[in-house]
Design brief:
Helix content is 34%, strand content 18%. By secondary structure, it is of the alpha/beta class.
């Protein structure tokens, strides 16, 4: 932005002023930026715009979770979710229109993939939520766990998280901004070189055989390579841990034996385990593990010394829970068409 102002023949410090107006005060009208000269405001009106994602639907769950359906200029729609808790408020942000990774237990993945979100479209979700939420519902944590795989939209995601951390914008701590990945190993290593936000990994299985089935990306980046990259990411920082997400699927990955396998796998890894009760969606053959099974699984992990929590399901009544985000995706991957052909030829997966 400083370079852009210099190209206009203006002083670069105006970038700091405009950044504050947009992100700290939610002002998009250049005329309202009163510490800029009238001439500069007029030039900005001629040569620039602040384009905010349009809210097409806003829903509030009975548990207080809020979900916004945001329409982009291309006609696609994405979803952003705010989850209030007594000690914090978490905003779940999308990074892509749809997702290209085809994880079998995720509703977003079944919608196909259209494109990456721009920096403006990613940070615009935080802008909208900040504008919409009342003062008594602050956003304390930001997680890129919405639609899409953040690390396949690397440059735009990093640029957006930099704005989240910037003192002239949202001033978030690196411990309160989290990028979640299905396990793109080279991108994890690259992220370590350019950013120090927190890392979460969608694991969901303790063996390559099962993870290959649940998450096709594992065939390219198997578990051993993934865990090695996670260790590298937090190396040298005693306080830091990687959060591993594990969706609980009835009869698939929730046995005592699988809990013991996971506990053994995590030895020596600075880890926190989030157990996520599966959230159903139309067309899915999976079922949620019983609470008794989840509790038993957690007890085995905790007994092995692993910090383990069961994520409380939030926003399920408005399809805002983990794995349920859909939006409206103009699929360019032809995934839905391929699925129909596969189902016709060999039965439903």
């Amino acid at each position: 932005m400083e370079a852009w102002f210099q190209d206009l023949g203006e002083k670069p410090f105006h970038a700091r002023q405009v950044l504050k107006w947009i992100h700290q005060h939610q002002v998009t009208d250049f005329d309202a930026m009163t510490n800029l000269s009238k001439n500069l405001r007029a030039r900005l009106k001629e040569q620039a715009e602040v384009r905010v994602p349009a809210i097409t639907c806003s829903q509030c769950s009975k548990d207080g979770t809020r979900k916004w359906l945001l329409e982009l200029h291309c006609g696609n729609r994405i979803e952003t979710v705010y989850i209030p808790e007594p000690e914090r408020g978490t905003l779940c942000v999308s990074s892509q229109v749809g997702c290209s990774l085809a994880c079998t237990f995720c509703s977003t993945a079944q919608q196909g993939f259209n494109r990456n979100l721009s920096v403006a479209e990613i940070i615009g979700q935080l802008w909208v939520a900040t504008k919409e939420l009342p003062d008594d519902q602050p956003i304390t944590n930001i997680v890129l766990m919405g639609m899409g795989e953040p690390l396949t939209n690397f440059d735009n995601v990093v640029a957006a998280t930099n704005i989240m951390l910037d003192d002239l914008a949202y001033s978030r701590s690196k411990y309160r901004v989290t990028i979640s990945t299905a396990g793109i190993v080279p991108a994890i290593d690259r992220l370590r070189e350019v950013s120090d936000v927190s890392l979460a990994v969608s694991l969901h299985a303790a063996t390559d055989e099962l993870r290959d089935t649940l998450m096709p990306v594992n065939k390219k980046y198997p578990i051993a390579e993934l865990l090695a990259a996670c260790k590298r990411y937090v190396a040298g920082e005693k306080r830091r841990r990687v959060t591993f997400e594990y969706v609980m699927l009835d009869g698939v990955n929730d046995s005592d034996q699988q809990a013991k396998q996971l506990a053994k796998l995590m030895q020596g890894v600075p880890a926190k385990i989030n157990l996520i009760p599966f959230n159903p969606f139309p067309g899915s053959d999976y079922r949620r593990s019983s609470q008794q099974r989840i509790d038993a699984f957690r007890a085995i992990l905790s007994a092995s010394g692993l910090t383990t929590v069961t994520r409380k399901t939030r926003g399920e009544d408005i399809d805002a829970a983990c794995g349920q985000l859909v939006g409206r995706v103009q699929d360019r991957s032809r995934r839905q068409e391929k699925q129909k052909i596969t189902q016709t030829a060999g039965g439903k997966r």
